Structures are given as C-alpha cells and as structure tokens.
Amino acid sequence: MKLSKTRSRLESDLGMLYYSTDAPPIGGRLRQIPDDFIVEEISPEGLIVNRDLERLDRGEGRFSLAVLEKRSRDLIPLVSMLERRLGAQIGYAGIKDRNAVTSQLISVGLPFGSWIPPEDIDGVSIRIIGPARWQVRPGDLLGNRFTLTIRALEAPPDGSALDPGWVPNYFGHQRFGVTRPNTHRVGKLLLKGDFEGAVREFLASPYPGEPEDAFLARKELRDSWDLRRAESSFPRSLGLERAVIRRLLERPGDYKGAISVLPGDLRRLFVNAYQSYLFNLALSRRLEEAGPFVVSEGDLVSPLDRANLPSRPIRCDCTNLARLRSWVASKKAVVMVHIPGYKTRLSGIDAGIYMEIFSKEGISQADFAGIIESNFEGAMRPAVFWPVSFEPGQPQGDELNPGYFKLSMRMALPKGCFATVVLREIMKPEDPAASGF
C-alpha cells in the first residue's frame, strides 16, 4: 500500500511520517479561541463528562468524584497545585489538551461532603458529583468526545476531503509539545541516566514558538549557565523551571535531585513521551513495509469490543493466522504494535523493526527499568483506529476572519487516540504550530 508522506518537518521529527488519505489539504487553523477545541471525557459507564453530569455514585468510601473543567490550563501543574491546596491526592484518567476547553472526571482523596472545591483558580471549575470507593486512575475512561472548529479556510472544503476513514494511531503532536517539541528528548536523556543533559534540555533549550520572555531567558541560560541570573530572569509562568533552578542553587551539581523536584507525573511523562516517539517510528516503518492491515505469524491482533477498544491480544501462529487476517480485514480486530519497555516481548514484524530502531537510538529494552524510581514495562497500542460518529458540519463564514470560512465537526474517539491525528489527515499542515496544533 502506497501512502502519502507528511509535508511537515515537525511531524517527520516526531516519527509521524504518513497519512492514510491522499486527499488534498483543506488548510485552516485550529484553536484560534479556546472554544474551538472542546474535549469531553466519556466515563467507563458511557457517560459524557460535562456540565450536564450532575451525579455519579461509585459507592461510599474515602474518595469523592468531581467534574474538572479547565480552560487553557496544563493538567499536571494544576493537579499538583490542587493537591497542595486540598491536602489530598487527585486521580485522573487522562491528560487533556492545554489549549482547549476540557471536562474530565477526577477523584479527590477526601470523603464526599467533607470538602469544598476552590473557586478562585483562573480558568478552572470543580464540581463535586458523588462518592467513590476507589480513585480514578490513568486509563479509566472509554474515550473522549471532541467538538472542533477549523477556521481561516480559504474556500469551503470538498466533502470527500473530510472523511479520513482509518487513521494511523500515532501519538499526536501535543504528546511531545508543539511550541517546545522536546518532551521525548528529555525522556531519552533520563533513560540513559544523563540527568545533567535532561536538566539542560528542560531548562535551556529555547524554541522559536514559545513566548519571547521565555525564549530569551532559556537562550541566556544556555549560553551562560548562570543559574543565579536565571532565577530572576525566568518568567513566573515557568514555575516548574524555576523550582529546578532553585534546587540547583541550593545543591550545585545535583542534577538528579533537581529532576526529582518535578511532579512525579511529569517525570514519568518524559519517559512515556520517548516511548511514544519510538512507537511512532515503529508504526511508520510498519506502514511503509507492510501496510496497516497485514498480519504475519508472531504479530499480535486484538478483537475490538463495543467501544471500539482492543479487548485481548492474540498472538498469530499457523493455527489462527487465516482467522485473524479475516477479522482484521472485516474491522472486527486490529493489529497491535508494541510500546517498548523492559518487559516487552517482541515478535512478528515488530521484532525486526524495533531491533533496528534500538540500534540507531543506542538503547536497549533493559534501559527502561529503574528510571527515576520507576519501571516502564511497555504496552501495546492499536496500529490504526476509526473515528466514531464523525459528524462534519456545513462550512460557514468565519466571524473571526472576515472573508474566510470555518468548519465545525464532532467526533468520539477511543481512549488514547488523538483528535489532532484525525485533523492532520484533513488539514495536512506544513507547519503544525502555526496551524494551531
């Protein structure tokens, strides 16, 4: 199967090499205002988590359930701040987009009725909806519903360009950062035990897309490594960076300790981002060599459940190969690709692909054990996905960009799938950052 290649240098750098469609790009821009990108979580009960969800009871226990709505806020720093203010652990199912309006279910480690949510946090609303015996954990969701608007279209798009069909299940741009696409770079340095390199990449790698004050502060630190000056020059918006700088001033040369002041979720996210980068590389190679639906002995195939989620991976061998190929061809099952970790058992087409990638990256599976007090076992991820109830609207005049058009759409995606990966099939941006990705 011959696939179209990305036009974007950023996507190439992130391993997102191919499109599933060869339709011409419609162009346009995302996220001109926060309401152009609305994300609503779908709970394991199948409920849409938004302002209409008034009650959810998971049994009397030591946890409370709440709906967290945020507007243009990063989740991990927000959760860290809430945990300090409430004196309790916050649980969540997934990290939602920053440049968006998002609604999701969280758990708070306080009994129902024993606390009052803060109301003075800019861009944040928290509403308690019920008790729970257990906390919300990563992956505790069916998916997300997206309501999206593409603006600044030069012409109304042809309807044939709006149906992506199957989509390569890449980890999307925001997994790595769009204005600062280096989260995976920090992760690789942590994997190699290069804590000084990881700190320098986190603090002092300026990227042109970030705010000017942050760019200049990072550039000055990169050129001088004057931490005392950086303590005052780094803008207050870079609170995590400032915490790392303060730790280095207190304990010069303790780069591992400096990394440890970051929230645990963020430290794990760095390594997860590097795993995601490796997955993207492997998926692109698989699409290039075999296509998305080819099944060989040793491959893993998973039937899809009613929520379009993989249920149980089945290893292909000579006894089941024909049956599994039939399931994949009829969209009843999907090929799975490994997300590498120290417990990953590589086989099938993946094995050869990953051996080449590991050699080029200078890593081994054993490197994923014992990083920053965590072990990264590895996982599996579908090679492709299909948007659920994809509903494009009718093009209209764009009130924010006179003379241009806008297009709104709604879709639901299985958990772990990125709306921006669907949108890149439609928009095919050469510069994802400038296009609002």
Q: What is the strand and helix layout of this fold?
A:
Elements (H helix, E strand, L loop, with lengths): L8 H5 L23 E6 L20 E9 L3 H12 L3 E3 L8 E8 L15 E9 L10 E11 L13 E2 L14 H9 L3 H10 L7 H13 L2 H7 L5 H12 L4 H6 L3 H26 L10 E4 L10 E2 L5 H9 L3 E7 L8 H14 L17 E4 L1 E2 L2 E5 L3 E2 L7 E10 L4 H9 L10
Parallel strand pairs: 1-4
Antiparallel strand pairs: 1-6, 2-4, 2-5, 3-4, 6-15, 7-12, 8-9, 8-10, 10-11, 13-15, 14-15
Helix pairs in contact: 3-4, 3-9, 5-6, 6-7, 9-11
Notes on the protein architecture:
- The chain folds into four domains: 88 residues, no CATH class; 98 residues, Alpha-Beta Plaits (2-Layer Sandwich); 82 residues, Hypothetical Protein Yqey, Chain: A, domain1, CATH 1.10.1510.30; 115 residues, TruD, catalytic domain (Pseudouridine synthase), CATH 3.30.2350.20.
- With 437 residues, the protein is α+β, with helices and mostly antiparallel strands.
- 42% of the residues are buried.
- It contains twelve helices and 15 strands.
- Strands 1, 2, 3, 4, 5, 6, 13, 14 and 15 form a nine-stranded mixed β-sheet that branches. It has a four-stranded antiparallel β-sheet with strand order 9-8-10-11.
- The two termini are 28 Å apart.
- The protein is 30% helix and 19% strand.
- It is globular, with a radius of gyration of 22 Å.
- Helix 3 packs antiparallel against helix 4 and helix 6 packs antiparallel against helix 7.
